[in-house]
TrEMBL record:
It comes from the Bacteria. Transmembrane segments: none annotated. Residues 205-359 form the YhcG PDDEXK nuclease domain. Residues 20-184 form the YhcG N-terminal domain. The lineage of its organism: Bacteria, Pseudomonadati, Thermodesulfobacteriota, Desulfobacteria, Desulfobacterales. GO terms for molecular function: nucleic acid binding. It comes from Desulfobacter latus. This is DUF1016 domain-containing protein. Pfam families: DUF1016_N, YhcG_C.
Length: 376
DNA sequence: CAAGTGGGTAGGAAACGGCT
DNA sequence: AGCCGTTTCCTACCCACTTG
């Protein structure tokens, strides 16, 4: 007989193990009725540890999990969470998070006050910091999303902190992971280092992404900047979510009168945490330095017309479809107002009557350019 | 030896049901 | 109506073993 053919429930070891787990569950029940998220997480941690270790030490094969699921479900019909599927999550939960070290967990959250939150505890047999952190803040289903989709330690910690900070729902967390927020956050090209004082410059940098994903927009070609703006406003909830925490919508086509002339800002926000106005200009084209000059002018105008004593200097965000990194950095160098440039993406659909027709001149040209024997 | 086969693990999508 | 925890179903893949 192969080892995996052993009926796990027939061995004394298994029976003993099962008794242990049952005892723990009863204990946990008394302690806090398992419904409390924190206790649940800690219990899952313990259970996952037990499952993981026991499976390693024995040759029962993973069918034990099926068996355990049945045994526990029949013993405790009132308690959910002993399904085969969930026990797999529990096991993975322990195995993944036990590879985190405590020192890794204390990543600086925009202050450095996290260390002081956690009082020293007896080291051995205690759940590590990461579990305490999760247990106090994240529901189980959020953890499953992370277990499912994130493999990297730093990335995991990033999403855990962001979820706690922003109060993301499960679906929002899933969305942010899917759109790969981790590698977009703070990536915009800006001149904040030279135009803003610390720590304002770091905060502002962290508040900007590159690219912004406006995939909830579906625009039928051809469309212009005003079309994009219209749709952004009609999906204002998703728009604000993608912009990130702290942006409060002030107005669109915001009117400014400078001297004899009228000017209109595409989108105007106020950032609660940065305590400053944020001017967003949309360009449905590639970035060119002239845009930065124009935005610089708008920022000066807002600073003198809207900004009060208490407000920090106004920040500009230029959203364009494409940009050259070197060129953009160069263009921002001589701008004296704080400003960042990001790309944005959206969903384009072709109008019905054009689908399948011949490519445009531009498309042919860009295809040809792609074929040119240039070095990469 | 290579291709086929079947058991088993794992993950994703979607639905369900409880809760507020 | 939205959120959350859980389950169900489906699919991909791995591995050992068999069969031509």
């Amino acid at each position: 007989m192969k080892p995996t053919d052993i009926q796990p429930n027939a061995t004394p070891e298994y029976t003993h193990w099962l008794q242990e787990i049952k005892a723990k569950i009863k204990q946990a029940q008394v302690r806090a009725a398992l419904a409390a998220s924190r206790e649940l997480i800690l219990f899952y941690w313990d259970l996952g540890k037990s499952i993981s270790k026991t499976l390693q030490e024995n040759t029962w094969g993973n069918k034990v999990i099926d068996q355990l699921s049945k045994d526990l479900a029949s013993e405790f019909p009132a308690i959910k969470g002993f399904s085969r599927r969930n026990l797999y999550y529990v096991k993975k939960f322990y195995e993944f998070f036990s590879s985190f070290s405590d020192s890794e967990v204390i990543v600086p959250r925009d202050g450095a006050q996290l260390e002081n939150d956690i009082e020293p505890q007896p080291k051995e047999q205690m759940a590590p910091l990461i579990i305490n952190l999760i247990g106090s803040h994240l529901p189980w289903s959020h953890i499953k999303i992370i277990l499912d989709k994130v493999k990297d330690h730093r990335e995991t910690l990033f999403y855990i902190h962001e979820t706690i900070e922003n109060g993301w729902s499960r679906d929002t967390l899933a969305l942010q992971i899917k759109s790969n927020l981790y590698s977009r956050q703070g990536m915009a090209i800006t001149n904040f280092k030279t135009t803003l004082p610390e720590p304002q410059s770091d905060l502002a940098q962290q508040s900007m992404k590159d690219p912004y994903c406006f995939d909830f927009l579906t625009l039928t070609t051809p469309y212009n900047e005003r079309d994009i703006e219209n749709q952004l406003i009609s999906h204002i909830t998703k728009f604000l979510l993608e912009l990130g925490k702290g942006f409060a919508f002030v107005g669109r086509q915001y009117h400014l009168e400078v001297g004899e002339s009228d000017y209109y800002l595409d989108l105007l926000f106020y950032h609660i945490k940065l305590k400053c106005y944020v001017v967003v200009e949309l360009k449905n084209t590639k970035f060119i330095p002239e845009y930065a000059g124009k935005l610089n002018f708008y920022l000066s105008a807002v600073d003198s017309l809207l900004k009060s004593e208490a407000d920090n200097p106004t920040i500009g965000i230029l959203l364009c479809r494409d940009k050259n990194k070197i060129e953009t950095e160069f263009a921002l160098r001589d701008i004296n107002k704080p400003m960042g440039v990001s790309e944005f993406t959206l969903t384009e659909t072709l109008p019905e009557n054009l689908k399948g027709s011949l490519p445009t001149i531009e498309e042919i040209e860009s295809d040809l350019q792609g074929l040119e024997p240039e070095s990469e």
